[in-house]
Amino acid sequence: MKDSQNSPNDTKDAKPSSIFSEGDWELSEAFGSRRHNFVKIAIYLALFAASFLLQGRLSHTSNLTGVVAQLQVMVSVFLVVSIPKIGYFVALGCNGIELLLLAVHLLLTHNTRVVPGFFVCLCTMLTVSIISVFGRRLNRKHWELNRNKEKLSRLYQEVTEAGQRSAYLANHDELTGLANARNLRIRLATHYGSAFPILPKGALAVIKLQNFKVINSIFGPKLGDAVLQAVARRLQELADQNELHAARLESSTFALFSPKPAIMEGLLGEAMTRLHEPLRIDGENLEVRACAGFAECCEDADDAEALHQCAELALTAAQEAGGHTVGVYDSHMAKQARRRLAIINELEMALERDEFVLFYQPQIDVVTGRVTGAEALIRWESTHLGKVMPTEFIPLAEQNGQILAIGNWILEKACQDASRWPETWKVSVNVSTGQFFDRNFEPQISRSLAASGLSPTRLKLEITESVLIGDESNVVEILKRIRAQQVAISLDDFGTGYSSLSYLKNIPLDELKIDRSFVIAMEADRESKAIVETIIHLAGLLHLSTTAEGVETESQAQILKSLGCDRFQGYLYGKPMPVQEFLAMKDFCAFSSP
User: Fold this and answer.
1) CA dist., res. 33 & res. 45, Å (int)
2) Are residues 310 and 238 in the same domain?
3) What is the pLDDT of residues 81-117, one digit of tens each?
4) Which of 316, 207, 319 is nearest to 271 (CA)?
5) Which tens digit of pLDDT belongs to each residue from 335-378?
6) Containing domain of residue 304, as a range?
7) Using H for helix, E for strand and C for coil, what is the string for 500-562?
């Protein structure tokens, strides 16, 4: 066959093609080398024997004596050089034997013709010894050079492999094998640079695994890594099929980039569908929940960094929306982001500038129609931002840990204001989750009460259902210590979170606050009215009082009274107001009974 024929160049260095294996070929080479050495030794012995015989017949005056001597030296040196170890011992042995024979012959016969041969042997032995010594040194140096060469070769290979590995890790995620954040930045910068000064077409999607921390904490980091690898494989398959660039940005955040924005949004939907398919890992069935942010190259995203920021803003919007959603960037998101950043920056100085103020919304006794107290609600009039609603700055304060200082200020200020109210009025103060679990919270309650002189029985702390999630025994202990100070506990927005009957049974409470969403809807929605009725009835069985939020009409008040609610709170009786305006209500604190 044509493929089996060797070219002239191939056959030059090629080993014979036969039935011998590679090991057989090496063995045959070894035997061939031995045969050559035997031939060299045989030739040497023949020449040496000839030299020995000729030296015995020639006199020191013969012209051939020098030639014979040179021949003996030359063949001995040749043997030592061609066969270093064996040749040396053979040459040395032969010359030694000849020297011994000549010496014996000289002693027995006193024939001086052997004297030249005697010196020839001595010179030959000296010569081959010198050559052998230096040859061994040269061989040793040669061996050391070869060994160092091998070491250098291995070291070079290791350095090369390490360099290749380092270059790979500089641009790829070690766990998943996807491109990393640096690689993505370079890809985006190249994409923008290739189109400069024209704005290129392209789209970037940032994908976040919402429940990865839960999976990692429950099943451990080993299974968590397996989840990330499985997600990466699904994204890489989609990227390979549609010419996308997939990357892992950080722990549970991934990205997809395409220079074709028209197809990107549809492919992102397919990516979300693939990610939501259950995973089977180590015998566990896992469901990954993800959301994504999507942004195209535009005026707001006129470079690589801006495009990434826009995609992150869209991701934030998707996370706030909840569920398996995809947020698409628009210019309004950038304004919101700048607004949030400004709020965060201004919050740092708001307390020092004394920009916060407390408003109070009255709470009315259902039976008497009299004011029984009020809920303290914070308001912020920023020097640079103007009025900032609590719905804007409270979540940001909770995220940045500033809620602790703000919460302490609210507690102190509310106690100071309430100390000037009629003694039958109570003040309700909202407590955030972070504040509730802060180790300084309980001492702060005591300090605020002591500084204001307010009786503990006139303070009511409102907690949300999010506080109850987690370490129930710890929550119970904290609440027991707070109630031991004679401070009341109210569960705010009851029915909208994660409450269960076990919480109500085990956790010490004094009041349930019915969320305004149920109150507003109960006139037109029988289900909402049924929920309100159930909450009031349940509270009565558990010896808890009830306060209904969001009471805005007389008919709502009438329904709540007929169901047995204890207190009203809502615009029907007063919006949140400054403390002086609230105090003025004591002059006309009786309302007409609904």
Assistant:
1) 18
2) yes
3) 777 677 777 777 777 787 777 777 777 777 666 666 6
4) 207
5) 888 888 899 999 989 999 999 999 999 999 999 999 999 999 99
6) 181-329
7) CHHHHHHCCCCEEEECHHHHHHCCCCHHHHHHHHHHHHHHHHCCCEEEEECCCCHHHHHHHHH
